[in-house]
Write a structure and sequence with these properties.
- The chain is α/β, with parallel strands linked by helices and 376 residues long.
- 23% of the residues lie in helices and 30% in strands.
- The protein has helices at residues 22-33, 62-75, 85-101, 108-127, 170-173, 187-196, 218-226; strands at residues 3-5, 13-17, 37-44, 79-83, 132-134, 139-144, 149-153, 176-177, 231-234, 240-244, 271-276, 281-285, 292-302, 311-316, 323-331, 334-343, 351-356, 359-371.
- It has a six-stranded antiparallel beta barrel.
- Helix 1 runs parallel beside helix 2 (62-75), helix 1 (22-33) packs across helix 6 and helix 3 runs antiparallel to helix 4.
- The termini are far apart.
């Protein structure tokens, strides 16, 4: 069956989400150049925007809004700022805090795509008569001959962002455009294109880390909102090795910053194996104890029809992680995943995204893991 990129479709009335960075500016410019009727919009995601970024972090400042407006002026498209700060606080920031408080490791960028850019923003865009939302993500929406859509990895794997888009469903894919996803270009070439187009953001640094944590200090951010809660750091046998000021400050697989004075008997490093908010303990142990052979994930979302029966796929477990071969099956609404080879650094709260080649099958939130030595 013939497949074509979504960009080959008829001209559409589209809303370009412009963060103030180079990727979203070039995406908006390409959409306009392709003949689409483009309107730019910057999302105000903070009630106190000047506090949301320092240096190159984040994408939520007054400066970013101004950069987006200037880019829209150069492209020659209308531009607006939409206030989604309350929705962002509830669906992304508060969710982030609650997940850490529960001992899980969330991905706020994935949640923002699900709840803000392709839910709140898309719903408002459709209500206003727009056909689609354009973003600067590196991923591809492929339109098949029968009209169905598939989400695929970007042509350039080095910039692929399909992992954080794995939460998009059929309806959202039908109204999503990613003009950067099907071009094999380096980031420097994207910057060169922006400069050729006269976009001042051509040399603007990329945003990094979590946009609502201005200094990048996640533990400090959580401590300010959850307060210090001292507890024990224990080994697998339950022996107390040290103390912590909040279990939320640790993640599965963490090695540094454990504040354990006594070395392990074998002299080897210890890693965080488990975080228990119930008794406020952090369990540490050897690297081998991190080996995960399977997992159960909840709240699955499918980029198309839900798979039936067990199937073989590859899975990605973090935004910049490698793929690993798996067998996966939907059982009573939960996704059961078995790894061909044990993997490490898998934590409840993370997303597992399944792929069939370059096609994104779907995403689910990891609830429990099965280890080679024990279950957590």
């Amino acid at each position: 069956m013939t497949e074509t990129p979504q960009r080959a479709q008829r001209p559409l009335r589209v809303l370009a989400a412009m963060s103030g960075g180079v990727d979203s500016a070039v995406a908006a410019a390409r959409a306009a150049e392709a003949g689409h009727d483009v309107t730019g919009v910057h999302l105000a995601l903070s009630a106190n925007p000047q506090s949301f970024r320092t240096g190159a972090r984040g994408c939520c400042t007054i400066e970013d809004s101004r950069d987006a407006r200037r880019a829209a002026d150069v492209i020659g498209i209308p531009f607006y700022v939409w206030d989604l700060a309350e929705r962002f606080r509830e669906d992304v920031v508060e969710d982030f805090i609650a997940e850490y408080e529960a001992g899980r490791t969330p991905n706020p960028c994935l949640r923002c795509n699900e709840k803000i850019k392709f839910a709140a923003l898309l719903d408002k865009a459709l209500a206003l008569g727009f056909d689609a939302v354009v973003t600067g993500h590196y991923a591809q929406v492929i339109v098949r001959e029968d009209g169905t859509r598939e989400l695929h990895r970007a042509s350039d794997m080095a910039k692929d962002q399909s992992y954080v888009l794995g939460v998009l469903d059929d309806r959202q894919l039908a109204h999503a455009m990613f003009p950067l996803g099907d071009t094999v270009t380096t980031k420097e070439e994207i910057r060169a294109e922006a400069e050729e187009r006269g976009l001042a953001v051509a040399k603007k640094p990329d945003s990094h880390d979590i946009c609502f944590i201005a200094d990048g200090d996640t533990q400090g951010f959580l401590a300010n909102r959850l307060g210090k809660a001292e507890g024990d750091i224990v080994d697998e046998a339950g022996a107390v090795l040290g103390t912590h000021e909040g279990a939320y400050g640790y993640t599965i697989g963490q090695r540094k910053g454990l504040r354990i004075g006594t070395p392990a008997a074998d002299g080897k490093p210890r890693y965080v194996l488990d975080i228990s908010p119930v008794n406020n303990t952090v369990t540490v142990g050897p690297a081998a104890a991190l080996d995960v052979t399977g997992l159960t994930a909840i709240k699955p979302r499918w980029c198309g029809v839900a798979p039936t029966g067990p199937g073989t796929y590859t899975a990605q477990l973090r935004a910049h992680g490698d793929e690993t071969p798996v067998t996966a099956e939907l059982v009573e609404g939960e996704l059961r995943v078995s790894f061909d080879e044990p993997v490490r650094g898998v934590a409840p709260g993370q997303a597992v995204v399944l792929y069939d080649g370059t096609r994104v099958v779907g995403s689910a939130t990891i609830a429990t893991t099965e280890r080679a030595t024990a279950s957590v």
